Every structure is written in structure tokens, then in C-alpha cells.
Amino acid sequence: MILEISNPDFQTLLNAQVPEYGKVKVKMVDTDGITTVHRLARSSGGHVMVMGKGRKRYGSYVTWSYFKCIIFPETKETSESDKWVRSWTNVLNRLEKSGLWEDVASDVRIALSVGYDKMKQAYTQYWERHDYKNLTEEDKRNAEKIKALDERLVGYREDGTMYADTSVIWYMSKTAKVKKMRFYNKWQNDKELTDIANALENKTPIRISTDGRWTGGYDVSYNYQPEDNKAWYSEEYRGCGNGHYYLGLDATHALFYEDD
After folding, report:
1. Tell me: the pLDDT tens digits for 137-192?
2. pTM score, two decimals?
3. pLDDT single digits (tens) 201-248
4. Can you spell out the DSSP letters for 27-65?
5. Which end of the chain is more exposed for a tag (fewer CB within 10 A), N or C?
6. Residues 6+ apart with CB under 8 A from 54
7. CA-based nearest residue to 230, from 250, 216, 257
């Protein structure tokens, strides 16, 4: 996208193109026709700034009279379906490489095979309730309707009764949230991630816990149990015991599971 300085709505257009958080690399053409590459970001006051070379936090305001136009990188519209597929494919790739959470990896394969549209339909169907006095019958009816979408989304109890498989429907109907695990500052964090990588490679148990004083307010913990081939990562409010809980995917990243 090219923004012309002469455009009366240039300021508004520029604000719309520069993200509130993060930076965007652009080409700026000056009045002499010379093109240079710069990074644009927002100041704390919301103004668009040209970031200084090698700087992460400091820059200068754009001087409009110096430039003829600004060329932004082309962006592609991404559908929710594409985001969903990409996010769960990332999860599956990480799990297959690390070997962790084989049951979760199997569920992800099912979800990706079923597809975004049917997964969303199954989630909506699961929560559809009409007869709140007889939820057992409602669950049976919903399970039948979900089976009609794809029989891999249901399971069977020992007595033969059918149920909706919530391990797939609940957790995989939405786009996966994956984050890099963080324990301390960058240097110490790299050390912890290296220790986790060594533990996974050698299949030795490891526990890590850090106080919220050093992690921005969260008591962070990690636990790898090689006998179960599973790992957990959590960020709990300091001294509270409640927070955000994740499944460890590999030596660096974790998948959001639930809040408590």
C-alpha cells in the first residue's frame, strides 16, 4: 500500500497502517525521489514515529515535508479458517518433533482432518440445550448430531453409551494459543530453556519454578515427567495459586490450556 503525503487523510491512513504495538518496516520516498527503509512504530502517546537505527524504544516524529510517499508491505487477508489451520499445524509439528503429549497430537490430527467448519459446528451443537430438566437425554441427542458431523468426534463408554469427545471439541474448535516459555530475564531464560532441551533429549525429569518478583508478577513453573511423556507450564499470580495453564509442546513453547 502506498500513502501519498498530499492525501488530506494521510494522518488517519498512517495511523490505521501502523500497529498499536510492534513495528512495521516501510520504504519512505523523500522529495528528491530517494527511497530509504525505516521502521515505524507508535509512541506512548499514540503518535507515529520513525525508529532510530538499532533502537527499540526511541525515534523521531515523521516530518511530512521531507517525504513524498510511504510504501507499506503488501498484506494478505487471512481467514479465521486459515489462522485455525496454521495454529494447530504448528502445534502438531512441535509435538511430533518433541514426542510429547501423544494423545494430544492424536486429537489434533483428528481436528485438522475434520476441518474448521465442522469443528465449529460441533462446538455449537455441544452447548445447545433445550430441556434443562433432562440433560442426560440432551447430551445423547447432541452426541448423535455431532456423530452425524463426523463420528471421530464422539466416543463410547464401557456400557456402550455414546458421548461427545470434549478433549477435541472443547479445546480444538478455537485457534490455538502458543507462546514461548519465559522464566527470567533473557540470559537466565536461555539457560532454563537449554536445561529443558537437555532433559527432553535425555528423558530425565526436570522441575523449574521462579518467583513472581523476577518474572513480572507471575510465579512460573515447568514440570516434565518422562515416564508419562508429558510436560506442563504455568503462570500463576504471585502467591495466589491461580493463573494460566499450558501444555509444554517442546523445549521452548507451550500451548494454552485453561485459566483457573
Report:
1. 888 899 999 999 999 999 999 999 999 999 999 999 999 999 999 887 666 788 89
2. 0.70
3. 999 999 999 886 765 678 899 999 999 999 999 999 887 878 999 999
4. EEEETTS-EEEEEEEE-TTS-EEEEPTT-SS-EEE--GG
5. C
6. none
7. 250
Nearest CA to 256 out of 142, 187, 179, 168 is that of 179
Alpha carbon of 252 to those of 24, 43, 156, 199: distances in Å?
A: 26, 31, 36, 12
| Euclidean distance between CA atoms 55 and 58, whole angstroms | 6
**End-to-end alpha carbon distance in the chain:** 43
Helix and strand element counts for the chain (H, E): 7, 14
Give the pLDDT confidence score for residue 75 in this predicted structure. Answer: 65
Cα 108–Cα 219–Cα 215 angle in degrees, nearest 5: 100
Here the cell at position 242 is: 491461580
Q: How far is CA 31 from CA 18, 34, 137, 207, 240, in A?
A: 22, 7, 73, 59, 58
Q: Find where cell 489462522 sits.
A: 83
Whether 58 contacts 40, CB under 8 Å: no
Residue 223: is it exposed, middle or buried by C-beta count within 10 angstroms (0-12/13-18/19+)? middle
CA-to-CA separations, 218 to 162, 177, 222, 257, in angstroms, rounded: 41, 18, 13, 17
Contact 88, 176 (CB under 8 A): yes
